[in-house]
Amino acid sequence: MDRRKFLKGSALGLLALASPISISAMGEPTRKTTKSGRLNLSFRPNELKLRHAFNLARSSRTTTPDVLVEIEYDGLIGYGEASMPPYLGESIPSVMEFLGKLDLTQFSDPFRLEEILAYVDGVAPDNRAAKASVDIALHDLLGKIMGQPWYKIWGLSPEKAPNTSYTIGIDKPDVVRQKVDEAAPYKVLKVKMGLDNDKELVEIIRSKTDRPICVDANQGWTDKEKALEMCYWLKERNCLFVEQPFDKSMIEETAWLRERSPLPLIADEFLQRLPDVIRAYQVYDGINIKLMKSTGMHEAYKMAVLAKSLGMKLMVGCMTETSCAVSAAAQLSPMVDWADLDGNLLIANDSFDGMKIVDGKVTLTDLPGIGVKPL
Ligand code: MG
User: Fold this and answer.
1) How far is the CA of 245 from the centre of ligand 1 (A)?
2) pLDDT at 22
3) CA of 268 to the centre of ligand 1 (A)
4) Which of 148, 173, 208 is the last residue in one of the domains?
5) Which ranges of the chain have pLDDT less than 70?
6) Are 182 and 312 members of one domain?
7) Is the domain of 163 the same as that of 286?
8) Using an 8 Å Cβ cutoff, are 66 and 94 in contact?
9) Into how many domains does the chain fold?
């Protein structure tokens, strides 16, 4: 019996409503190869061009380095991506070097996720975005073999996916007003803070709209008393939460602020992977899970389950990245309180069609895997 027939007849195959043949008929990308029965990894560098210069408290840039990944198995292709905003410490050369060390052809069963991802994780420490690119491509491949999107495989209800926030970066007043106009379809605005003119930025936004905002200080606040005053000021201006108020090392100040703040504090730069959830639990009200930090969907899902079981608030975010990685993160979105999945909307050269924001809400499709098609 060939492998595909075996899978279709197996317990996993019973999940599949569409066979790989019907997936192909839907226009999903396939590659005509002889059935190798092996995982074949390929990758190429990619530069994301940003629609606006991306200004954070500590940096500014107009492009983001990126690597696109494919894993082929018996003619089906799973797509993945590593996005490397510079502050995370990875680069196109480091990701290419890491991926070049991998030999996935040693694996003949793509369903051995734990085994394959443990191998990838063990090749070198760190390299979280590089690892995420393999994890995402593998999930996309598995979903295509099963004929199901991951939110269904995880048992999630797509109508529970939240609105996404849309980021208004630090900028000149005229540019901020223009960005608020551009953000008209979005029901929540995310405001990047951490400079002296934080209140001015919010006042400009409030002069244009009363939609709820969430604030990301990106570690930019330094004084706990001022931070507390700012939390009360923001609470009066329909702010939902504050993300990463202080430097990730300022644990005592964060705990002090959390005890007093009228707004929930969400950890972002503070945490990366599964063991960090417990550390965050002690000083934050919630966590922002991102695939480029968590090494991909497998660990992100575990983080979400753990954080929810601890009663923490949950947010899923992204880097500036294509619809590939954003759509992969969106599969988790029915589990979270807040989504910040606008990374694909901030770039001018998306190479995938995937998850859509409809009327401000994360909207998942029935496309299998991570739900994308290459453009
Ligand atoms: Mg953040």
Assistant:
1) 9
2) 32
3) 5
4) 148
5) 1-34, 55-59
6) yes
7) yes
8) no
9) 2
The candidate with the shortest Cα–Cα distance to 134, out of 295, 310, 275, is 295
Residue pair 45/92 in contact (Cβ under 8 Å)? The answer is yes
Q: Are residues 126 and 197 in the same domain?
A: no
In the beta sheet, which residues pair with residue 347?
50
Locate tokens 């990875």: which residue? 90
pLDDT digits (tens, 9 = 90+) for 264-323: 999 999 999 999 999 999 999 999 999 999 999 999 999 999 999 999 999 999 999 999
Q: For residues 206 and 63, state if they share a domain.
A: no
Residue 51: the pLDDT is: 87
- Ligand 1 mean position to 217 CA, how many Å? 7
Domain interval for residue 73? 3-148
Query: What span, in angstroms and rounded, lies between the C-alpha atoms of 77 and 306?
Result: 31
| Whole-structure pTM value | 0.88
Contact 146, 16 (CB under 8 A): yes
Same domain, 287 and 364: yes
Indicate the residue among 148, 175, 205 that finishes a domain.
Answer: 148
**pLDDT score for 26:** 37
Ligand 1 centroid distance, CA of 290 (Å): 9
